[in-house]
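C-alpha cells incoming
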C-alpha cells in the first residue's frame, strides 16, 4: 500500500499542479520525459501497432482541495484520457513523477488490457457528467490493483475468509490489505517501489532524488512502526511483496492464520 497524508485544508498552491506559463511544446515534452524517467516510458502501443506518447495532466476542481492526475493521449486528432489517481506532493514535478509511477504500477499504458474502456474515457464522450464525478467513480477502483486481486483470489481459493482494506486496530490509523480479525493476523501487500524492496528498488537519481529517497525511507520506518504497534496489541503481521508469487504468499498467510486460529 501507499499511505498518503491528508491533503491540506485549503486549495493547493499553483506551484503544486499548474504548468509554468510560457512553456513551449518542446519544454512541456521535456517536463513529462523527466517525470516519467525517459521518453520511452511515455510510449503507448495501440492495438493497431501505432505508437503515441502520453502525458500527465494535473487538475484541481473549482473550490477543490485535491489534485487529480489524468493520463492523456491523442489518436487521429481525438484526445483520450484515463483517471490515474490523486497526488499529494508540494511541487508540480514531484506530482507528475508520482502520477507516472502510478501509471507504471497499474500498467495503465497497456491499451490491450484497457481496450474495452477507452471508448468510455474520451474527453468528449465521457460517461460521467463532470470531472468531479469521473474522479470519484474512477478513484473507487484505485485500491484494487492487479497484485491485490491476485493475492485475494489465491487466499480465497485456500478457503480462507478475510476483510479487505481495514484497520486492524480502529484507533490506530494503519490500514491492512487483508485482515483476519479472529486470528488477529494483518496482511500488507507492499509495492516494491514505495516500500523499498531490496530486490527491485533502486535509489532515485537526478533533481528529485532527495525527495523520493526520503519518502521511501519514511515509508520503511512507518512499516516497522506499524509492525511494532500491532505486535504490542497482540496482532501478527504478514508482509507480502508485490513481486511474490500469489500462490506461494497465500500459503504463507494460510500457515500464520491456522497457527493463530482460536481453538
Amino acid at each position: 500500500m501507499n499511505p498518503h497524508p491528508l491533503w491540506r485544508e485549503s486549495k493547493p498552491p499553483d506551484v503544486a499542479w499548474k504548468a509554468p506559463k510560457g512553456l513551449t511544446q518542446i519544454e512541456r515534452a521535456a517536463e513529462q520525459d523527466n517525470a516519467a524517467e525517459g521518453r520511452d516510458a511515455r510510449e503507448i502501443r495501440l492495438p493497431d501497432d501505432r505508437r503515441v506518447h502520453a502525458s500527465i495532466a494535473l487538475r484541481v476542481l473549482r473550490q477543490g482541495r485535491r489534485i487529480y492526475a489524468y493520463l492523456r493521449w491523442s489518436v487521429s486528432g481525438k484526445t483520450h484520457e484515463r483517471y490515474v489517481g490523486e497526488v499529494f506532493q508540494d511541487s508540480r514535478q514531484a506530482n507528475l513523477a508520482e502520477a507516472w509511477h502510478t501509471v507504471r504500477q497499474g500498467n495503465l499504458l497497456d491499451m490491450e488490457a484497457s481496450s474495452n474502456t477507452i471508448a468510455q474515457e474520451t474527453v468528449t464522450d465521457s460517461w460521467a457528467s463532470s470531472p468531479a464525478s469521473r474522479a470519484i467513480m474512477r478513484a473507487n477502483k484505485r485500491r484494487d490493483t492487479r497484485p491485490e486481486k491476485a493475492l485475494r483470489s489465491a487466499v480465497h481459493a485456500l478457503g480462507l475468509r478475510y476483510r479487505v482494506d481495514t484497520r486492524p486496530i480502529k484507533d490506530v490509523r494503519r490500514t491492512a490489505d487483508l485482515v483476519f480479525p479472529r486470528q488477529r493476523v494483518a496482511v500488507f501487500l507492499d509495492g516494491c517501489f514505495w516500500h523499498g524492496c531490496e530486490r527491485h528498488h533502486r535509489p532515485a537519481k537526478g533533481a528529485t532524488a532527495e525527495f523520493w529517497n526520503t519518502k521511501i525511507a519514511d515509508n520503511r520506518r512507518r512499516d516497522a512502526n506499524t509492525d511494532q504497534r500491532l505486535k504490542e496489541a497482540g496482532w501478527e503481521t504478514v508482509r507480502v511483496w508485490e513481486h511474490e508469487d500469489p500462490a506461494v504468499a497465500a500459503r504463507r498467510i494460510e500457515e500464520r492464520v491456522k497457527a493463530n486460529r482460536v481453538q
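note: Residues 146-259 form a domain with the Endonuclease; Chain A fold (CATH 3.40.960.10).
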